[in-house]
Amino acid sequence: MPSITQLARAELRDLIPYQSARSIGGAGEVWLNANEAPTAPDIQAACTALNRYPEPQPQQVLAAYARYAQVPAENVLITRGGDEGIELLVRAFCQPGRDALIYCPPTYGMYAVSAAANGVSALTVPQRANFQLDLPAIAHALDSQPVKLIFICNPNNPSGTRLNRADLDALLAMTRGRAIVVIDEAYIEYSAADTLAGELPRQPHLALIRTLSKAHALAGIRCGFVLANPELIGLLAKIIAPYPIPTPVADIAAQALSAAGLAQMRQRVADTLAERAALQAALQQSPLVREVYASAANFLLARFSDGPAVFQALWQRGIILRSQENAHGLANCIRITVGSHAENDTLIRALRQLEQTP
Ligand SMILES: *Cc1c(COP(=O)(O)O)cnc(C)c1O
């Protein structure tokens, strides 16, 4: 008799699920491992009529996000976090066992996980040493297999890099009529001028991933968006779950996207950018650190002389960071979320102590 596992789809047996910051664990007071905002927004949840199903795509949230992103409402799909947008794109465009997708490590882990979970082969085209795209290698990969999707993260997680606009334009030209280019803009509020939302009228094969989890400080509600042209949005809408956005989530998202909510968000981003500059300067002064990379997001990537030792020593002090030891080309690197002033200060003081211990 086959075991339950043997009955499952073959690609799931070997699947290593996404290692989220929360699933890795840890114990302590200072959590700088998940790129969350350090404080929660001021929100009043007033939910009524929970006996009724929610609107499949809550109109108020759709209209508010469209206004915020400066696109027509027909260009927006609301999803359960940005992660559901990634999954829907893979399911909509890649036929299991036949089609491929491309992603460029070191980058966000969900592109590989969604590919594997759906039996889609993932071609990796590593970034160049400066964390920019390797366009000739991407062109080569496009020709080698039936590639339907290319995932690009801008600003990139975990490096914090802003990608060159000319490279993104070249990528869009190279893929037109062949593959969908997905730009994951989860951190775009920290580098707002870099959005490609303004390109949507000209680029039918462009899709953007957005989220309320980072700058909007609402990781707990699981709310994200795909921005694309109506033809592409319509395909994703065919396969999304019937009522993906719970009524309380829609209520909270609408408040966050109100004028007052957006003003709070912009202040939070400004505070984070000031804290990031101070944290970067402090890290650069540490003899334990070899390099701190330029960041356009709410985190910093730092290369230490002995990354695993620093990561462990801080973990034991209850300061939980995100090791990048196993990411492509990132030996001895640690990703550090920019926290509150107090959290960053605790981190810096702990590093100063480690510098003293021989
Ligand atoms: C955090 C993140 C997301 C999406 O997060 P959700 O919480 O699912 O909205 C997507 N892409 C990148 C690069 C991220 O860092």
TrEMBL record:
Superkingdom as given in the UniProt entry: Bacteria
Catalytic activity line of the entry: L-histidinol phosphate + 2-oxoglutarate = 3-(imidazol-4-yl)-2-oxopropyl phosphate + L-glutamate
This protein's UniProt keywords: Amino-acid biosynthesis, Aminotransferase, Histidine biosynthesis, Pyridoxal phosphate, Transferase
Domain spans labelled Aminotransferase class I/classII large: 41-351
Metabolic or biological pathway: Amino-acid biosynthesis; L-histidine biosynthesis; L-histidine from 5-phospho-alpha-D-ribose 1-diphosphate: step 7/9
Top-tier EC class: transferase
EC number per UniProt: 2.6.1.9
A Pfam family assignment: Aminotran_1_2
Modified residues (N6-(pyridoxal phosphate)lysine): 214
GO MF terms, alphabetically ordered: histidinol-phosphate transaminase activity
Essential cofactor(s): pyridoxal 5'-phosphate
Family to which this protein belongs: Belongs to the class-II pyridoxal-phosphate-dependent aminotransferase family. Histidinol-phosphate aminotransferase subfamily.
Subunit text: Homodimer.
Protein name per Swiss-Prot or TrEMBL: Histidinol-phosphate aminotransferase
Gene: hisC
